[in-house]
Amino acid sequence: MVTVTTIELCQVKFIERQSLLQLMERDSRVALACAQMLARDWSRSFDDVHELLLARSSTEKLARLLLSWVAGEPRNGELRVATEFTHEEISQMIGSSRETVTRLLSEMKRKDLIRLEGATLVIPNRIALQAIAS
User: Which of 78, 88, 92 is nearest to 120 (CA)?
Assistant: First the structure.
């Protein structure tokens, strides 16, 4: 059994393993498309982990994580992302302690880098947060 938490709404469809393998054997275009998708997803995941690990401090790592959640959003205006992650889960994502994440989020709120509106994280100024992540 596998458990997954997503950052945004998604739809999952399951294909029986044997049926997929047979389809890929019959149609090389399907096999190639699957290989390309897997390679692209693996590369993006590797890049994300690499980028996160390059950060020197927990502050940088947290800023990079928050920015990664809004990476696909337009560059101007306030950025909003629904988040249901606990401070403990966020701390595991950046390799820090829950206490550190709580302290850093409080500091970011105090500096108006972020704010919470219910379960929505708002980044009013991406550039300011990017300066911390650099």
Answer: 78
Tokens 């790592």 -> residue: 61
Sheet holding 79-82, edge to edge: 79-82, 120-123, 115-117
Give one DSSP letter per residue of 88-110, joined into a string: HHHHHHHT--HHHHHHHHHHHHH
Distance, CA of 69 to CA of 121 (rounded, Å): 10
The ranges assigned to domains in the chain are 16-54, 56-134
d(CA 59, CA 56) in angstroms, rounded, equals 8
pTM to 2 decimals? Answer: 0.60
- Smallest CA-to-CA distance from 122 within 130, 112, 133 is with 112
CATH for the stretch 56-134: 1.10.10.10
pLDDT along the chain (134 residues), means of 10: 76 87 93 92 77 74 88 76 87 90 94 89 88 85
